[in-house]
Write a structure and sequence with these properties.
Elements lengths: L1 E5 L2 H10 L11 E5 L10 E4 L2 H6 L1 H12 L11 H8 L6 E4 L5 E3 L4 E3 L1 E8 L2 E8 L7 E6 L6 E6 L2 H5 L4 E2 L14 H16 L3 E8 L8 E6 L10 H14 L15 H7 L1
Antiparallel strand pairs: 1-4, 2-3, 2-4, 5-6, 7-8, 7-12, 8-9, 9-10, 10-11, 12-13
């Protein structure tokens, strides 16, 4: 869960140094994340291992905060850099402090770890997700949404080569993470991702959500991306088309609450 948000740099630094930013019962490690820097290449997330770690490294951490606060998001690794930057340039700087995710036991690796689903929401609908069950595995499972919220299938790509060559296989029934297909888990994921996209009024956003085994209703948002570069193998082109066609054909309506926040940067893309 998120402990708090800050939009004033000096106020945040003061509360960070005093420990007030971590709340009354901190659960270490805690994470500092900059809200206006959405790309991983911006290195905008910092793990604070403990209160002692914070004080021992305070000068370096404070410099990092001041540096990141003054930056604008730059989607330098994407071919759509110019258009992505036009969207994020209007986002005011801010930061949040977040507790760690709940861990799930991985019997295959013999250790605790985080299970995460990266969900693509297009025009308000959670379309599919990339499941990350293990940081140490080369497996890349793609979760495809079915006719109902609890109806889903998983296609597993065993390497990046299999992703780009579209050589997936059905999820083995004995896969240790097959529990994500049990009732409740993906329903929680789809609904939470759609709620976030609706609050943002975003036509497209990737929402990264944590899952915890034996807690199907306890999914939690990790972060999001407005310019996801995730490859979903054979599904990527269909995902792109689902997003682009409504723009090209003007099948959408602008929210009456959008006001001056409406950004027509996609209009230029649709014309190309």
């Amino acid at each position: 869960p998120v402990v708090g948000f800050w939009y004033d740099q000096e106020e945040f630094l003061a509360q960070l140094q005093s420990g007030a930013a971590f709340g009354t019962t901190p659960k270490w490690p805690m994470f500092v994340k900059f809200c206006h820097l959405t790309q991983g290449s911006m290195l905008s997330t910092r793990r604070i291992k403990s209160e002692a770690h914070l004080h021992e490294n305070w000068d370096e951490i404070a410099t990092w905060v001041r540096t990141k606060w003054g930056l604008h998001a730059d989607d330098i690794t994407r071919p759509w850099r110019e258009y992505s930057n036009a969207l994020t340039d209007v986002v005011p700087p801010g930061v949040l402090v977040q507790q760690p995710a709940n861990l799930t036991w991985n019997p295959q690796r013999g250790k605790w770890g985080v299970v995460e689903v990266k969900v693509e929401v297009v025009w308000g609908r959670a379309y599919l997700g990339a499941l990350l069950p293990d940081d140490d595995s080369s497996e890349f499972p793609v979760v495809m949404r079915g006719a109902t919220d609890d109806d889903a299938d998983i296609e597993v790509f065993d390497s990046y080569l299999s992703v780009i060559t579209h050589r997936g296989m059905p999820l083995p029934p004995d896969a240790w993470y097959a529990w994500v297909l049990e009732p409740g888990y993906m329903s929680c994921v789809w609904h939470l991702a759609e709620r976030m996209a609706a609050i943002m009024r975003a036509d497209q956003v990737r929402v990264d959500i944590f899952l915890t085994h034996n807690q199907s209703a306890n999914c939690a948002i990790n972060e999001d991306s407005l310019s996801s570069g995730q490859n979903y193998g054979p599904y990527t082109s269909f995902l792109t088309r689902t997003w682009l066609e409504p723009w090209a054909n003007r099948w959408f309506q602008t929210s009456p609450h959008a006001g001056h926040n409406y950004t027509a940067v996609y209009d230029e893309i649709a014309r190309r």
